[in-house]
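Attaching the record inline, Q. Sequence:
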Amino acid sequence: MTVTELYPAVRMLPRAEKLRLIQFLVIDLAQEEGIPLLAAESEYPIWTPLNAFEAGNTLFGMLQEHKAKL
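Structure, as predicted:
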């Protein structure tokens, strides 16, 4: 079956099924490429600037240097 033959069938799918199809294709392609996907039962760290005082001080110092050059 070709992609052209699939188009009419895909268009007739309800929205939820279209999203499942997209998810299936992404997972399938990622596995073929050897790209690791996020696991639902795993935890992943997310960086936040909250309480990143050292980064704030660095940016403030850079701003001061930039102002001094002007």
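Residues 1-36 form one domain. The chain is about 65% helix and 0% strand.

More tomorrow.
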